[in-house]
Specification:
There is one protein chain. By secondary structure, this protein is of the alpha+beta class. The strands form 15 sheets. Strands 44-45-46-47-51 form a five-stranded mixed β-sheet, with helices on one face. About 12% of the residues have low confidence.
Length: 1467
């Protein structure tokens, strides 16, 4: 399905999260999924993924037994163990016995069906997948980090714990511990058994040796060696026969890594070990910073290790390694490693060299950009805060990728290469930063000094606009950088002076176009490739097109009604020059619109044009569009990506889907077409993957219809539980009119809060605890209800009645308690408590007091007011009282009674001290504040300010603001309310106290309106805009919801406010919605409110009349909601009826030529897109109605050449849409007498006007064309069916249904037609034109097939190992159509020959007059074949006409399809 694939990064900090089987399939856990890679010595190939876990995958292991290598097991933080079939990509079985997170897994190498898992609580679970039986053991109350099953004893399992303990248990003896291996003092990260069963002698340091000298260890006939890696920086070899360690290997500090690693710092160390099957004397382990070392256990000497990848720099990982696994490929043993540097490496254990490196991604792929200078250089912006630059054309290394991370520190959400300067890459981040990287230097990036306040949505290089465009050419850059941020602002950055301030282009737009109203926030921008026109997408769904350099507004497209996510101009190097004016746009409403802006750009009007009809409408996606890309190799081919998880390729000119890619497992965020390969497309999404895929190999054509798949994806992913925010006063009471959040990353599809890449532990714990409470609550409630029902059946009281009685009883108790007087807290608690001592002590107090007052003998012993005599301070002098107060204050502080302490200071007369103390402790009260004026105004004002801060801390904002008003700080009070989103109260205060013209009042209204608009409260937001004299914004925000009532209200509001242009567009949009719902009465009422819409009223009138006339045919199959009495069908001709209704109902008649001419000019400026087979019938009838209206107006103006031209457009739209019945009905309505009616038009044309005569000939040809088929059907109904079926193999216009015979009105005009009837259809100039166009199309098809074959041969040459792995579901290659007489040598036509033939045909086209090429004409070859068929079956055609038809067929009908149809129908 895909060519190349960058998968998600393997999960970190797992003991076994990757494994490889004997067939060379590597599986690893990444996020919630498991990715599968086919490994070869040359390059890896992603072959699929396994999805089913709802949380992070924590472990993965393949079944090691022959014939079952495709079976694997996985564990997850969702506490499940799943068994998979990797060939079928299906889940076989699972269990959820574990109650804690699973931390270790291994598939038994001796028991085929046994999977062993361990969790963080210390539980070991044995799972036999065939019988679905489980058995649990609890060998040690410790956290398990890893485990490994013995390859020699089927019941022995080694388990490593967090505290450094290793145990070997016997599962046949209920998990009995056989050995406890002590030696490590920190986490055990990995365990590996020796592949050889017996313990051979090793060189190493014996654990029994006290001097630490090296010695040879004795072997043992039984047991097996076990290797362990720990966070204590050692690898130990254990003897399970003796139950002790036999060798300790300390990690080397490699000098090549500079100063090395501090041994005391272990946070960044993960020591994994692996024992290769073919190397019993060698153990591979990770090291400090990403190195891999191989230990030779039988080697003597100090250095027992060898470094992998030591021959050249850059081979090793740059960060710690988590998992390693190996397998044998032929005579080579390959080792696979995963690391924190997000790379998977393959190593050859014989040469110790790196075979290849596969980069992986640790975040959403937000953006892609191909360099226009360095061909094939692709830049990726990823959510892991890194930029990756990929040389996609590298032959030696398919994944030649460099990573840039310096100076970024946030998700990379936008990228743009400089158009001319090689290696200059601009980037934008989630935190609003914009910078430029020089990718071919080692320097950090240059960052702009101007930051966006929110996520950078898009970047684009374009010509400078004022003020940067001022000055000489050498003083300014040829290209400046434009950035669009989530706050709705577009900045222009000077790449020469990024430290300078960037300019906001909105100021230039306002000044140039004299815009006074609030501009909609911008969400995307796109410069036309020639740099002359800039398109800007807005939050309200409008697209503004400006002319550089002054940014004069040319036109506004208003099809989208939701936020614009992506804009793209068609490339300039097209064979059709007019295609460069196509602008594709995608928004959050799942529909892609393509606008043809040629007339607005080439012939701009004085005032901006409102584009109301798209050139093409591409419908099929079911969610918001996030990215667009035009094919640089084709004309009008567009690829779109969407939140529905698919990428869709469209043929825009035919308005048809080409193919649909469904290889991603999440939402898509970006897309690019390969600049060198016409069949390859690149897509990235929130599944952490970048995928390259071929258009020609996709089995699906259209996007999936149902959203069910992605609802399942959402359920599968962990959902964050949103915390309910406390509603601030004044924000409630509003009805939410729309659940859209128009501004913010969640609607843009690119970054920031649009989609979260992870979930914090706190949020997850909260979610689980909340879920648990809800379940418990349900259970308890159900038990209460059942108990109540049982009691009620026994004649006892209902539980609710009992509860009511209990509540009433408690209420009575409370009322009784409230009657009792509550004793207030004493302000002097210490001295008061001293008066409640025993009588003897109280007597002593009296004696002491008397002695103090009457003598001075005890003065040194008794100090009244302090210590044990504190109570005496109340009865002696003031100093004693103050001492008593001091101790009472200290007591109040300890007890937290700051108010009592303040009162004591107040009583002492220290009012300022009391206020300061209360303010410091946050205990100011209204009473204290009322006393503050006694200390002076300044003390009072300062106290009020401190009290305001205290009130704000307690969220009493209204009270705080009121106190600020009391000290005349009105603006501060308003800002306080505004800052806490109490806009209603802030406006009320400002309105009551400020002058009406004060700018603060307008700012309040505008700020509140913006917040209300964001929250979906559109009507209240409109009131705010109206109060701020911003009627334009009020009308726009009301119409934002898009329903008919809102649009009508918005249009009326705009009309009342004098915003006539906005009222015009809103009324027209509302009327169109009503028209498509067939509510004609209300539609005309809406348009009637404005005189400027008279022309559109005429179009709607014609549309209603036309719909009524076609209700009895197969064209109109729907019912009408309402209609006017004048629209009922009558005997009068259609155009006469139109003129009559116009005169009676609208006052439009030939007598008022000024009014008629004005309406013709207004309607003539409307872009009426060409018809295609996918245009809905209601839209098609509306387009025809516009042509008929212009024709009728031209008749009133006696402008007959224009009338005939517009008549031709109305007649041919049905033919262009492939609807023959509609074409025939329109011919009957507009030309009721057929050729006789046309003759009346021709009489009024100037015989010297060659263009008008050609147009009238084309009209005559289409009339004769449908009469030809009527003649055929009238003679043979039976033959018609087989004939149509036969001719359907020929040309597309012959694919008519036999049932259409009944829809054609009347018979042929006569049994034999005049000479002119036959002659007009056999126009040789048109035959030559059509033949040339067919030849060019066939050559282009051949070129496409040649390119596809060439690319496939290159792919098979580059990757011979994957040649036979093409998906069986891929569509077969189209066969090269051969002409009947074509020889086999035609198959070997080279590309240069085909290009030369195309050039010759283009010369032939240029020689044909423009008036022949411009206007449609029936297919001459088709008419020739029908003539010959009719002559052979009915002898209706004159012989000289048959001869002429045969001559034309021989001359111009050499294409394969026409030859096939000719042979079948005439032989």
């Amino acid at each position: 399905m895909h060519q190349r694939h960058l998968p998600a990064s393997p999960n970190w900090y797992c003991s076994r999260c990757s494994d490889i089987n004997n067939n060379g399939v590597l599986g690893f856990g990444a996020k919630n999924a498991i990715y599968l890679l086919k490994v070869t010595a040359a390059a890896p190939v992603v072959i699929g993924e396994l999805t089913g876990h709802t949380e992070r995958v924590s472990g993965f292991a393949f079944c090691p037994h022959d014939g079952q290598e495709h079976i694997c097991a996985s564990t997850s933080d969702d506490k499940t163990v799943k068994i998979w079939d990797t060939e079928q990509k299906v889940l076989l079985t699972e269990h959820n016995v574990h109650q804690s997170n699973i931390s270790a897994v291994h598939w038994s190498p001796l028991q085929k069906q046994l999977v062993i898992t361990g969790d963080e609580k210390g539980i070991v679970v044995c799972y036999w997948c065939s019988s679905n039986d489980t058995q649990s053991f609890f060998p040690e109350p410790r956290t398990i980090f890893c485990l490994s099953c013995s390859p020699h004893e089927e019941n022995f399992i080694a388990v490593g714990y967090k505290d450094g303990m290793i145990v070997v248990i016997d599962i046949s003896k209920k998990g009995e511990v056989i050995h406890r291996l002590r030696g490590h003092d920190d986490e055990i990260h990995a365990l590996a058994w020796c592949p050889r069963p017996r313990e051979e002698p090793l060189y190493g340091r014996s654990e029994d040796s006290t001097d630490g000298s090296n010695m040879v260890t004795d072997g043992a006939d039984v047991g097996c060696y076990l290797a362990s890696g720990s966070r204590d920086q050692t690898v130990r070899i254990w003897s399970t026969a003796r139950g002790k360690g036999v060798m300790t290997l300390k990690l080397p500090f490699l000098k090549r890594r500079g100063a090395g690693v501090d041994p005391t710092v272990k946070e960044r160390l993960w020591l994994t070990v692996h024992w290769p099957k073919g190397r019993p004397s060698q153990v591979v382990s990770s090291c400090f910073g990403g190195e891999i070392v191989m230990w030779d256990l039988v080697k003597s000497g100090k250095q027992k290790w060898s470094l992998l990848g030591s021959s050249s720099d850059g081979q090793n990982h740059s960060r710690i390694i988590f998992n390693m696994s190996s397998f044998r490929l032929g005579d080579r043993e390959l080792l696979l490693s995963t690391s924190m540097d997000r790379e998977i490496k393959c190593w050859d254990l014989a040469s110790l060299e790196c075979c290849w490196t596969l980069p992986t991604l640790g975040g959403f792929v937000y953006c892609l950009s191909f360099s226009p200078v360095a061909t094939g250089c692709l830049a990726l912006g990823v959510g892991d805060s890194m930029i990756r630059v990929w040389n996609t054309l590298s032959i030696q290394n398919q994944y030649d990728i460099r990573t840039f991370w310096q100076g970024i520190k946030s998700k990379v959400t936008a990228l743009a290469w400089h158009p001319l300067k090689e290696g200059s890459l601009a980037f934008g981040t989630d935190d609003g930063k914009v910078g430029i990287y020089e990718v071919y230097s080692n320097k950090p990036p240059q960052n702009s000094s101007t930051y966006h306040r929110r996520t950078v949505y898009s970047l684009s290089w374009g010509p400078p606009v004022p003020p940067m465009s001022f000055g000489a050419s050498g003083d300014k850059p040829s290209f400046t950088l434009y950035s669009c941020g989530g706050e709705g602002v577009i900045f222009q950055h000077d790449p020469w002076k990024l430290s300078g301030e960037a300019t906001n282009i909105d100021k230039l737009i306002r000044d140039t176009n004299n815009i006074k109203h609030k501009m909609a926030p911008h969400t995307d921008l796109s410069w036309k490739p020639d740099g002359k026109v800039l398109a800007i997408g807005n939050e309200d769904g409008t697209i503004d097109v400006f002319k550089a350099p002054m940014l004069k507004l040319l036109c506004t497209a208003q099809q989208h009604h939701k936020i614009i996510n992506s804009l793209r101009w068609h490339h300039e190097h097209s064979s059709q020059n007019e295609l460069q004016y196509l602008l594709a746009s995608g928004s959050s409403n799942a529909t892609v619109y393509v606008h043809d802006l040629r007339s607005a750009i080439e012939s701009p009007s004085e005032s901006p044009v409102s584009v109301t009809e798209p050139f093409r409408t591409l419908s099929g996606h079911t969610n918001k569009i996030t990215g667009l890309a035009w094919s640089p190799h084709h004309d009008g081919h567009l690829v779109t990506v969407c939140y529905d998880g698919t990428a869709q390729v469209w043929d825009v000119l035919k308005e048809e889907p080409v193919c649909n890619y469904r290889g991603h497992s999440g939402r898509l965020l970006c897309v690019l077409w390969s600049p060198v390969h016409p069949d390859l497309v690149w897509t990235g999404g929130d599944d952490f993957t970048l995928q390259e895929w071929a258009v020609s190999k996709q089995e699906h054509v259209t996007p999936p219809k149902s959203k069910k798949r992605f609802e399942i994806e959402k359920k599968r992913a962990p959902q964050k539980k949103s915390k309910k925010k406390k509603k601030a006063p004044g924000k409630g009471g509003l009805k939410v009119e729309d659940n859209e959040s128009p501004l913010g990353e969640e609607n843009k599809g690119a970054a920031g809060s649009r989609a979260e890449e992870g979930q914090s532990d706190e949020e997850e714990e909260e979610r689980q605890s909340t879920d648990g409470l809800s379940v418990t609550g349900l259970a308890s409630q159900s038990s209460v209800d059942s108990w109540a029902a049982e009691r009620e059946q026994n004649g006892e009281k209902h539980i609710h009645a009992v509860k009511r009685e209990i509540k009433e009883e408690k209420r009575r108790e409370k009322s009784d308690l409230s009657l009792k007087k509550r004793k207030p807290r004493s302000i002097l608690p210490l001295s008061t408590s001293m008066d409640h001592r025993p009588k003897e002590e109280l007597h002593q107090d009296c004696l002491a007091l008397a002695a103090v007052r009457h003598s001075h003998e005890q003065a040194s012993v008794c100090v009244p007011g302090s210590g044990d005599h504190i109570q005496l301070g109340l009865f002696t002098d003031r100093d004693a009282l103050y001492r008593m107060f001091q101790e009472e204050e200290e007591s109040h502080v300890e007890a937290g009674h700051y108010d009592s302490m303040a009162y004591l200071r107040l009583w002492k007369g220290d009012l300022v001290g009391a206020l300061n103390l209360a303010a410091e402790k946050g205990e100011l009260t209204d009473h204290l504040l009322s006393l503050a004026p006694m200390a002076g105004y300044h003390v009072w004002a300062r106290t009020v300010e401190m009290y305001v801060k205290q009130l704000c801390l307690h969220e009493q904002f209204l009270k705080a603001a009121s106190h600020l008003v009391s000290i005349h700080k009105l603006y501060e009070a308003i800002n306080l309310l505004k800052g806490h989103q109490l806009y209603r109260e802030a406006i009320a205060l400002a309105k009551a106290r400020l002058q009406p013209e004060d700018p603060v009042l307008r700012d309040l209204y505008m700020s509140w309106a913006a917040m209300l608009e964001k929250d979906g409260h559109y009507t209240t937001a409109a009131k705010c805009y109206l109060a701020a004299d911003s009627s334009f914004d009020a009308a726009k925000v009301i119409g934002k919801k898009g329903d008919v009532i809102s649009l009508r209200t918005a249009a009326n509001l705009a009309w009342i406010s004098g915003e006539s242009e906005l009222a015009h567009s809103l009324s027209l949009r509302c009327a169109k919605d009503l028209m498509f719902s067939q509510d004609w009465l209300v539609a005309q009422q809406v348009l009637r409110t404005q005189d400027t819409l008279l022309g559109h009223r005429l179009v709607f009138c014609v549309n209603e009349l036309l719909t009524q006339r076609l209700t009895d045919t197969d064209v109109v199959t729907w019912s009408l909601a309402s209609s006017h009495t004048w629209s009922k069908p009558c005997e009068e001709s259609f155009l006469s009826t139109v003129h009559g209704v116009w005169q009676r109902e609208f006052g439009v008649a030939a007598a008022d030529l000024v009014k008629v001419k004005m309406q013709h000019q207004q309607l003539g400026g409307i872009e009426n897109p060409p018809a295609t087979a996918n245009v809905p019938m209601k839209h098609l009838l509306f387009h025809i109605s516009l042509d008929v209206t212009l024709c009728a107006l031209s008749q009133l103006l006696c402008d007959w050449p224009s009338a005939v031209e517009e008549l031709l457009r109305a007649l041919t739209r049905g033919s262009e849409a492939g609807h023959f019945t509609l074409m025939a009905e329109m011919s009957h309505l507009l030309l009721p007498q057929g050729l006789d009616s046309l003759a009346l038009y021709k009489q009024k044309l100037d015989p010297t006007d060659e263009k008008s005569l050609v147009i009238s000939q084309n009209v005559e040809a289409f009339v004769c064309y449908q009469l030809m088929y009527k003649k055929w059907w009238s003679f043979s109904a039976k033959t018609s069916s087989s004939s149509y079926n036969t001719m359907s193999n020929g040309h597309h216009l012959l694919e008519k249904n036999q049932n259409e015979d009944s829809n054609c009105r009347g018979e042929a005009q006569s049994e034999s037609f005049s000479e002119g009837f036959w002659k007009v259809l056999l126009s040789e100039p048109h035959a030559s034109l059509q033949a040339t166009q067919r030849a060019i199309a066939e050559i282009q098809s051949k070129v496409t097939i040649l390119v596809q074959k060439h690319s496939q041969s290159e792919d098979s040459h580059l990757s011979p190992d994957t040649k036979t792995q093409a998906p069986s579901s891929a569509r077969p290659e189209p066969e090269d159509p051969k002409e009947p007489g074509e020889s086999k040598s035609g198959e070997s036509e080279c590309l240069s020959t085909l290009i030369a033939r195309v050039a010759e045909h283009h010369k032939e086209l240029s020689a044909i007059p423009d008036y022949i090429k411009k206007f449609p004409f029936p297919d001459v070859m088709e008419c020739c074949i029908v003539f010959l068929y009719m002559d052979s079956h009915f002898t209706l055609v004159p012989q000289h006409i048959c001869s002429e038809a045969t001559t034309l067929l021989h001359k111009y009908g050499s294409s394969a399809s026409l030859c096939k149809a000719w042979n079948r129908l005439t032989h």
